[in-house]
Every structure is written in C-alpha cells, then in structure tokens.
Amino acid sequence: MAEPKTADLMDKIVSLCKRRGFIFQSSEIYGGINGFWDYGPLGVELRKNIRDCWWNDMVRRRDDVVGLESSIIMHPKVWEASGHVGGFTDPMVDCKVSKQRFRADQIFFSAVVVDGKTVGYVTVLESERIAEELQEKAETFKRKKAIQGKLEPVQPRDFTEAKSEEIPLIPSPATGEPGSLTPPRAFNMMFETYVGALRDESAVAYLRPETAQGMFVDFKAILDTGRVKVPFGIAQVGKSFRNEITPRNFIFRSREFEQMEMEYFIADDDDWAKWHRYWIDWCREWLVSVGIPASSLSEYNHPKEKLAFYSKGTTDLMFKYPFGVQELWGIAARGDYDLTQHSKASGQPMEYFDDVKKKRYVPHVIEPAVGVDRILLAILCSAYCEDQAPDEKGKMETRTVLKLHPRIAPIKVAVFPLLKNKPELVKKALEVRDLLRPYMTVFYDEAGAIGRRYRRQDEAGTPFGVTIDFDTLGEKGPELADTVTLRERDTMKQERIKISELVPKLIEKVR
Ligand code: ATP
After folding, report:
1. Closest residue (by CA) to atom 27 of ligand 1?
2. Residue-by-residue DSSP string for 16-60
3. Cis ω for the linkage preceding 178 (within 30 of 0)
4. For residue 392, what pLDDT is reported?
C-alpha cells in the first residue's frame, strides 16, 4: 500500500480538505484572511466527534473531572495576574525592504567560516533540514564569491541569539540580502477589544489566548459546589485567539483555534511527577484511541533552564507532521503558581481544606492542553492513504482513502441503492437509511455508478457502505431477501448481512 508520507502529503491533504468540504480558507471570496479557517460539512462533523470523544473520556466517564464553559472575554485583570499582559509575547522581526514579518525563533542563520575567518552569513526559515539547508547555502555563498580555502561546518542559531553586531550582516529570508532585518522585539499576541460604549484604556479587554485561566478563576466557585475533592480536574473546550506573527502549516498554527484543556488539582505534598506521568500516558493512549499511530508520537521534555521559574516540568507529545515533528499536546506541571497569582491579585483565598489531613493549602496543578485543530490535522495526516482498486471496468486505478477511526469518522455509513431509476431499490434503501439514522450519521447517495459512489465515501473516510440490490428485493430467491452488502472501507471486502442485523453490528463497530 502506497502511503505518500512525503513532502507533497500536505498539498494532497489541503486539496482533499477543500475538494470534499472539510476545511476552507476563511472569507475566501474576499481573498481570504491569514490564520483563519472555516470547517465545512465534513470538517464540522469530524471536529465535533474529536471534541465529543475527548469530553466523554475526559469528563463523563470519570468521577474526578468536571466540566466548565467560561466566557471568552474575561476581566482584564485575569490576564494581568496570569502574566499574559506582561509576558505573552513572541519575538518579532521585520524585513524593512520586503515588509515581511517573521518570528525571530523561526529564522535560523549561521556564519560562513572559511579557514577560521567569518566571510558572511546565511539564513533559512525553520524546516526539517535547517543544518543541511544552511550548509548548502554556505557552499553556494563561498562558490559565488569565489572564496578559496576550507569551509567549516555551519553552526545554526536562531535569530534571538544573534549578537547586535551580527544583525546587519544576516540576510533577510525574504530578499536574501543583509541589512534589512530589525532586531527582535516583543510582540504581545493577545487580541484586544473594547467592552462597552467607551473606547479608551479603561475599556480594553482581551480575547482569551487560552481556556485555562477560566478554570483557575472559577476554582473557588466549583469547589463551593461541593462535588469535588482533591485530586480533581476541571475541563473545558473552547475557542482561543492568538495574534500569531506567522500563522502557517494549514490549521497547525492559526489565529483562532480551539483548545481542550484540563487543570488537574493535586495536594501540595502529593507526588507531582507521578501525576504528570499519569496524564502524559493518558493523553498518548487517547490519541491512539482516535486513530493516531503510537509510532508517530514522541515525547519532548522541556529542558530545565527553559522552563518558567514556577514550572516543575513540561512534556510535549510530539507528532510527526509532514512538515516536521511538532508539538501536539503539552502536559505541564505548574505548581501552585496560577491559583496563587489569582489569589494575590483578587484578594480571594484559593485554598482547599482537606478534611482528612485537617489542613488548608493551595493545590498544585497538572495541565494537559491541546488544540482540536492540531489533533484534527494529525488525524488527517495519519489517515490519508493511496492504494490501488479496480474501476468499473476492472482496470486498476489509484484510490484515495481516509482511514479514519470509525469513532471519529464524520459519516459512519453510506447507503446506496444499486440503481436510482428502480423505485423498489430506492424505497428499500431509504428504509435502511431511516433505520440507521437514529444511531449514527448516515449519508444516502444514489448518484452515479456504484464504484464512483464508493470512492467518494472512501475519500470522506466513511468506514462502511451498505448497498441495496436486486437480491435485497428477493429476486434471486427468498434466502437473500432483506439482505444487503456491507462494504468495509479499508479492505474493500463485502459481506452479505440481514437488514435486521445492521444496527447492532454497526453500533458495535462505530462506538
Ligand atoms: P507553540 O509552541 O506551538 O506555539 P504553545 O506551547 O504556545 O504552542 P500552549 O500555549 O501550550 O502552546 O497551548 C496548548 C496547545 O494549544 C498546544 O499544544 C497546541 O495544540 C494548541 N495551540 C497553541 N497555539 C496554537 C495555534 N496558534 N493554532 C492551533 N493550535 C494551537
């Protein structure tokens, strides 16, 4: 089976998403708006299924996690206390000639050193082959300038590490020429807005850049409901907004995206490392349960020196996207920092009274935080396949198939009458559709040759197809009457089964 896990995989996925109605560029008829995406009929179902699976597994099937839906715009003091107003920044660099804007930590450069002497600089943007690309550029640089001597291996650094005297010498990724890049400066990624009729400083508010603060701010309110005892978690799914300097890689980095976050509160003297490990493993297993192969996941432990001062440890679950291994899910042990900050800033105690230990303390927290859109992209990348299948005349052709896990597939089953101009077949097929509909998403399709209808569903990731033919009507004898063919997407195998067996059989497979 050919799996195009190559550089063009992203192009194929983007094109499939557009063609089949998974994802469109937002406001496309006006030329689009960078960093914003719309989910079409299939995308919206896929997204909802991901969210629902997470919610069921994270909240409904557990005794120790409760849900929350907090508002997107909160009191601006929330974001001062959390550190976002002061510190939620990315280092930004402008190219004065091209007017393009970059994130400094995504520009990589190296000195070109020949016989121990720096003769110039080369630049590339972040990619999977930073060192190789820089080396190639350094070789070209030396050749073009006809410099004699031994070229030393490049030493990649990102632009935040550039010394001030180096900045004018580093070529812009946009023009290839030095002299136009500005020094990096902090750019706050929060979207600002105004609340109420006045448009002055006192009315400034922010679209939330993460959902997590809702859980901290409402911690007391949830505690007071009396339903929870440490250790327990508060989970939320919702939109977050970040004015990313360089949104890119399709839906991987957007300016409006959806997060699924959970704050798990533990006792101040509990073993945080044990809980951290527990949640890393939980997240990994959950990703596998929605169809992401364990082999494409890895763990990245943030080095101690790069952690925020309050952080005890952060591990990212990384996914092998076609554009490189990137963060999918971050699992952070944040100590008691967030609750303490809000307690100080609001003057409200954020303590928990442990009636077994008879003591009061501020709980510590483990935070698994993930983006729905990044999971959706990882799922699409894992599911995309091309194989060979016979066409109408038996000739082999390339088939595009999304091998989505039945749990999250947008449509669970497609129902086809063999021919659309035979009213008895159509009537029976509609009956089968109506029989299945209360239990799962069903798509009825009577247009075109049956093989083409199968292909359309293969591309949509529909795991099962049910075909109603003349045998169903009993034309070949009573033993086949009221039976249908059930086709399985991945193997393309077909079996004959009784209509009365369809519901239990399919429910077992899609739940
Ligand atoms: P990155 O380093 O990729 O910018 P981050 O470390 O800032 O991500 P967090 O603040 O930990 O991300 O957010 C938690 C999760 O939210 C991420 O693991 C990711 O899945 C998702 N996420 C963050 N920023 C974006 C974005 N701009 N677009 C889509 N998803 C995002």
Report:
1. 253
2. HHHHHTSEEETTGGGT--TT-EEE-HHHHHHHHHHHHHHHIIIII
3. no
4. 75
What is the DSSP secondary structure assignment for residue 83, as one 8-state letter?
T
Give the DSSP per-residue string, 63-82: SSEEE----SB--HHHHHHT
Rounded distance between C-alpha atoms, residue 246 and residue 257, angstroms: 14
Q: Which ligand 1 atom sits closest to the C-alpha of 244?
A: 27
Is 258 a pocket residue for ligand 1 (Cβ < 6 Å)?
Answer: no
Using CA positions, which residue lies closest to atom 23 of ligand 1?
Answer: 371
1-17 tens-digit pLDDT: 444 455 689 999 999 99
Residue 196 confidence (pLDDT): 94
Tell how far the Cα of 329 is from the centroid of ligand 1, in angstroms. Answer: 8
Query: CA torsion, points 393, 420, 414, 378, in degrees to nearest 10?
Result: 60
Q: Which two tokens stand for residue 424?
A: 């008895």
- For ligand 1, atom 3, which residue shows the shortest CA distance? 327
Q: What are phi and psi of 213, to 5 degrees?
A: -60, -30
SS3 455: helix
Is residue 195 within 8 Å of residue 227, measured between CB atoms?
A: no
Q: CA torsion angle for 73, 76, 82, 86 (degrees, to 10)?
A: 120
Whether residue 172 has its Cβ less than 6 Å from ligand 1: no
Closest by alpha carbon to 370, among 362, 360, 379, 361?
379
Distance, CA of 425 to CA of 158 (rounded, Å): 65
Going by CA atoms, what residue is nearest to atom 6 of ligand 1?
330
pLDDT given for residue 127 in this prediction: 87
pTM: 0.92
CA of 457 to the centre of ligand 1 (A): 32
What pLDDT band is residue 226 in, cutting at 50, 70 and 90?
confident
Q: State mean pLDDT over 214-243.
A: 96
426: Cα separation from own chain's centroid: 40
Side-chain-side CA neighbours of 426 within 13 Å: the count stands at 8
Ligand 1 centroid–CA 371 distance in Å is 6
- Contact, 454 vs 466, CB < 8 A? no
**pLDDT tens per residue, range 36-57:** 999 999 999 999 999 999 999 9
CA dihedral over 396, 401, 406, 412, signed as positive or negative: negative
Q: Which residues contact 144 (CB under 8 A, 6 or more apart)?
A: none
Computed over its alpha carbons, how large is the radius of gyration of the chain?
Answer: 28
CA of residue 319 to ligand 1 center, whole Å: 13
- Please give the backbone phi and psi of residue 321, each rounded to the nearest 5 degrees, phi first: -75, 160
